[in-house]
Amino acid sequence: MSKHRKIRLGMIGGGLNSFIGIVHRIAAYMGEEYTLIGGAFDSNYESALEFANKLELDPARTYPNIDTFIEKELALPENERIEAVVVVTPNFLHYPMAKQLIQAGFHVICEKPVTNTAAEAIELEELVHKHKVVFTLTHTYTGYPMVRQMKTMIAQGALGKIQKVDAQYYQGWINPVIHDKDKRATVWRLDPAKAGQSCCMGDIGVHAFNMIEYTTGLKTLKVLADVDTLYEDNPLDIDGTAMCKFDNGAKGLVRASQIATAEENNLRIAVYGTKASLKWEQENPNYLYFLQEGQPLQVLKPGHEYNGDLAKISTKMAPGHPEGIFDSMANIYLGTARAIRGEAYLEGAFPTIRDGVRGMKFIEAVLASAGNGNVWTEIVD
């Protein structure tokens, strides 16, 4: 029996005090598919070394910047160098760093948004194909077992023809600072130079959009959108709604807000078909609600034999034991590991650069629709 080899993992960003860095590292460790070797963890090299020492990593594999990371790693024998790199930097650095890594032949696991523009995302997609690397975009919520079960049931026709989709992502985190001009000037997500074209729709609205296309298999053809910055001197949206037209003729909604007072992380999706409906919400992720006319409500949960293969392989706990966001991210890392090794994996095992391209096109179409007086705007593919 051949020995199972762990993938050598690197990380750009994600050092001291990085919440999302912790999520990625725990997710990578959970499936026992990766070993974190080194990286460029912080723009401050001393902080990066302190972080590496805390994790008992080799300081020689802790680099001051991405250029040095690539140069030094490529100089190592192929069987020693880092193979896959996690990019968990501020938004504006995703594109240039991912581009460098892809061109150097590394597999990439990238936080979203994938880029600042759709044109940049298309360029990355072309480079991924050219250099034959695996690119994973961490739309984390697609990793939940019951989201994957939702995808399976819809593909199997359990709902009939889809005729209405409603996806919502409500948070209230920015509400305490948005009403104070001095405070909001310090929030990097409201700075176009760091956050890109959009705050709310780019940060969380795109998750709701991705959830629709992931679970239903539908493609969004057009959007009619409106966004709100709340104050004239605030350059980026903090609230928005987009009506969507899908390629099967159905319509739906993407609703997102960061000023939904006291909301925490309220992502939910409802898909209505001619035969039945499915509903799921992130704050109660173990429950998938299946509704049929004239029938009692069914509640499906992970860990049971009635679920499909994609949900089964995404479930690590016995029935009744909650699975959360770390498990969800870990499922994405597991699918990525199988792709990196050239092993078989199920469709939907991890979001790809294609999801990044679609997300950026959605964001740009929403902004164009709102900016042109709330008109239907095509998402050209």
UniProtKB/TrEMBL annotation:
UniProt domain GFO/IDH/MocA-like oxidoreductase: residue ranges: 147-278
Domain Gfo/Idh/MocA-like oxidoreductase N-terminal: 7-138
Pfam families linked: GFO_IDH_MocA, GFO_IDH_MocA_C3
Annotated signal sequence range: none
Name this protein carries in UniProt: Oxidoreductase
Organism, as annotated: Roseivirga thermotolerans
